[in-house]
Amino acid sequence: MKNKTLRIMLPLAVLASFTTGMPAFGMTWEPLQSDSRPTTDDQKNNPADRDLTAKIRKAIMADKTLSMSSHNVKIIAQDGQVTMRGVVPSQAEKDAVLAKANDIAGSGHVTDDISVKAK
Q: Are residue 17 and residue 73 in the same domain, yes or no?
């Protein structure tokens, strides 16, 4: 009877921890990202930053020579400062994406947080 109860209660406890966002069995929850680099959640909702992000995204998407990975880099605008984040397949694609961001946001307003995928 004890084993049957444990087999029923253990999965329920784990399921409850996932659905409520609470850690199970005394485990502590830590964010996946422990650094202070900006994420897309940090993007301001002001019109200027939204417009800046949209212009950069449009320029990147218009370049059909870029890979899907390059098309999907994260663009985070905060008060005119832009952080580009993601993984691209080559240094040439990284340079192309950053050049488009610099052309639109202005030199000195773009932070490079893009890495090149190791081969």
A: no
**Distance from C-alpha of 8 to C-alpha of 112, rounded to nearest angstrom:** 49
* 67-116 pLDDT tens trace: 999 999 999 999 999 999 999 999 999 999 999 999 999 999 999 999 99
Q: How does 34-70 read in b/e, with b if 16+ C-beta sit within 10 Å?
A: eeeebeeeebeeeeebeebbebbbeebeeeeebeebb
Number of neighbouring beta carbons within 10 Å of residue 119: 5
Q: How many domains does the chain have?
A: 2
Task: Select from 54, 100, 61 the least CA-distant residue to 77.
Answer: 54
Query: Could you give the residue ranges of the DSSP H alpha helices within the chain?
Result: 2-20, 47-62, 68-71, 91-105
Considering the domain architecture, whether residues 18 and 67 belong to the same structural domain is answered as no
How many residues appear in the chain? 119
